[in-house]
Amino acid sequence: GGTMHLIINNQIGFTTSEPLDSRSTLYCTDVAKMVQAPIFHVNGDDPEAVAMVAQMALDYRMEFNKDVVVDMVCFRKHGHSEADEPAATQPVMYQHIRNHPGVRHIYTEKLVSEGIINPGEAEEMAAKYIDALENNYVVSRPHTNVIDSRHTINFEPYRDTRWNMEASTALDAERVRSLSESFSTVPDNMALHRALKRILGDRRAMGAGAKACDWGFAETLAYASLLTENFPVRISGQDSGRGTFFHRHAVIHDQKSGDTYLPLQNMSPDQASFLVINSTLSEEAVLAYEFGYASADPKSLVIWEAQFGDFANGAQVVIDQFIASCEEKWGRFCGLVMLLPHGYDGQGPEHSSARLERYLQLCAEENMQVCYPTTPSQMFHMLRRQMIRPYRKPLIVMSPKSLLRHKLSVSPLEEFIDGKFRVVIDEIDPIDKDKVHRIVVCSGKVYFDLLEARREHDVTDCAILRLEQLYPFPKSDIQNLLKAYANAEELVWVQEEPRNQGAWSMLLSTRFLGGCFDQTKPLLCVARPYSASPAVGYASLHLQQQQAVIHDALNLSRFEQAKQKKSA
Questions:
Q1: DSSP run (H or E) holding 198
Q2: For residue 251, with 0-12 CB atoms within 10 Å meaning exposed, 13-18 middle and 19 or more buried, which class applies?
């Protein structure tokens, strides 16, 4: 609808630099020319001109619903701050400023000369104002009462809540079938891409229990269920409509006409709103906007998705200054979800790591949640839990890439009907827990590599646990699972990331994984070697490192030694 932008232009970015050093254009407002917005330059020494321009700008915005810019040219009397000495670097400018009478004096003389006020009256008004301030009287005008309160935020339901509050996120079988039918159905006259036609057919089969459920189905089912429970859903990010890895397909394109159809906008007549936006790779701008949106509307599921998790580094200032500290610094609750595709697939340094370690470093005082789901049903319950619990903290998700189509990373329909989000998942193979000597704990994609290797080599003395929520750390849940392995001799954390990255630096603490196991027994780490880069650049070297991680995690050298002895 258009925005009125007001620039209080003190002509100086910082007192150690020339004004023109801060930009390559004559005016700071030249950036607005690219959207063809009108720009008004007005002298800050003339209050009546400023008022007139402000009225013109507002009238333009209200009439045409477009952006308009007001550049009020003024100055800072004391430079960067009252303790600064700006003349050291801006001698000419501040010689003029110190000889300048100031806007109040200029306007007073104008009013006196025009007979609007009497000589001395302005000084009396100023003295009365200062006296009121010194005596703690309210000098501002009375504020208007809010008549329309539809957009005010009530944070009371979210105060004093904990992350481990119970939340019923499961759906009954009939509802799953009905929702999946709705979001996999398109108008009869739409010409579908052959791959999409197969995907929609598979989703109908998944909803009926005839096929194992994949990530695209689980995520779409979560959104569909929330929309029909009156929770609006909003997703933004590069290629979010289709999904960077061809899994979401929230926007369906007619192959002949180019028309689009959004099934999630057509679930039922009384559903909540669904919006998916293919935003540009301006991560800082987009993530900042979505943070503001989520904190202003705690009843909406607001998601920002990075094309690759690495790309969130372009928005690090938003993460550090607002997302991690919004409650502590600003007193605001925010349920923003960040989906950061993460996993070492040999795609190089800028397409492997969402920098899990950075988010864990920022974690304290239950300020946010960091999760790394390994199955579609976990993703489903995690997204629903985010809205159904009255707990509004940012949710950072190490989301899947290659797992989207991994043969083992699927979920039976029963897990959507009877399950919930499990912060830690126990061993799934029928191994004898009394014979387990090594317990491996891991998160994410590396679990399936470990599982396949253990089955291939018939390792029976090693259990694998999945840590699905890294923060808030589910210490009691892990301790309860570890009790079943009475004869375990060592606890091993396994990660794909280099040893100086990933979750290890946090988990070794006694407050976390280091405090879950018998303190007389070792807590070990298996990871890639220390590295300044998040990943190597060669696929062959990636595979070599990945095999080494799996080999060391399961201690496969003992099998190789036994094999060598047997052959000898």
A1: helix 194-207
A2: middle
Note the pTM of the prediction, 2 decimals.
Answer: 0.88
241-277 confidence digits (pLDDT tens): 999 999 999 999 999 999 999 999 999 999 999 999 9
Tokens 């990010």 belong to: 237
DSSP state of 311: G
Q: Phi, psi at residue 466, to the nearest 5°?
A: -110, 120
Residue 370 neighbours by CB distance under 10 Å? 23
* Peptide bond just before 472 cis, omega within 30 deg: yes
CA dist., res. 152 & res. 60, Å (int): 27
Instruction: Quote the CA–CA distance of 428 and 71 in Å, as a whole number.
Output: 65
Range in 78-92, 185-199, 512-526 the model is least confident about: 78-92
Instruction: Give the pLDDT of residue 87.
Output: 86
Three-state DSSP at 394 gives coil
Q: Are 489 and 345 in contact (CB under 8 A)?
A: no
pLDDT digits (tens, 9 = 90+) for 436-494: 999 999 999 999 999 999 999 999 999 999 999 999 999 999 999 999 999 999 999 99
> Reduced to 3 DSSP states, what percent helix, strand and coil does the chain have, rounded to the nearest 5?
40, 15, 45
Backbone angles phi, psi at 551, to 5 degrees: -60, -50
Query: Counting every residue, how long is the chain?
Result: 568
Alpha helices (runs of H) in 342-490, residue ranges in sequence order: 356-362, 376-388, 414-418, 446-457, 475-482
